[in-house]
Amino acid sequence: MPSLPQAPPWDVHRLPRAEGRRFLVTGGNAGIGYFVAEQLAATGATVVLGSRNPVKAQAAIASIGSRVPGADVRHVPLDLADLASLGASVDALGLDRLDAVVHNAGVALDHPPRRETVDGHELMFATNHLGHFALTHHLAPLLAATPGSRIVTIGSFAAKSEHLDLDDLQGAHDYRPKRAYARSKLAQMLFALELDRCLRAARSTTLSVLVHPGGALDSLTPSRPPVHVRTTGERLRHLPLGLVVQGKDAAAWPAVRAVLDPGVRGGQMWSPRAFGLRGAPRIEPLWNHLADTATAARLWAASCELTGHDLTFAHRA
Fold first, then answer.
1. For this structure, is 181 an active site residue?
2. What angle do CA 34, 112, 290 make, to 5 degrees?
3. Of residues 181, 191, 253, 300, which has the active-site annotation?
């Protein structure tokens, strides 16, 4: 019996073509999200940047266009901190199907005081987790219309040593900014894995894939003016750190592979190869606390209540 041809090794610099496919990247105007969008645009796909800042989005589109001739990159207004606006943002996409969404956008506050959104939710938890939870609800029909569509959630290495306080998800009683950020990212990661379980129970072909970018520094990130400008001095000063961490261009690789690689499966976590901090993407075993299905189910229920949405296309049968 003849052997089946082997798929070529994944090469972050030689991505498969994706003409005709449509991808949404939240927060695609800056940081890791920008490089996810740039790399996906280079495959020939249509890439939509979800951003609340139209000026920054247009700068990102111009930067991608200057590096990817003929790039099809668009902008849709998206404010994850305003739950009531998300339905209109999805309508503004003007699409009848969607091949993948990359849940990338987020905020990080380094100093008190605690801030709340227009809905009264703590800003980091609302933007990083609740906004993406609600956005997935609104995108469900577009994703369900595309066999094999993907929901790619970008977590964070910061969540590895954190645990959720289900009785104080929004830090109302004990707020510490760095911990609140790490917990909001942990909530995202638990959501991605619970979503995978729900999708499989519903026999959906949509995949929920978790990634984390490892360690990423601006000083190791190549310039993309005016989106990001790195001086020669910054690059030289931080060059030794490249042995441990990487730039945001490389930090985008796990998410890009999760979108494009036909061998990716739902429920997997992809991360940089070297200690989860730098290098080409590979499958990483789930951290112990990410396998806590009871906490994930309780978080799901709380998220439904806080957002007023239930992900019916992915609900357990």
1. yes
2. 60
3. 181
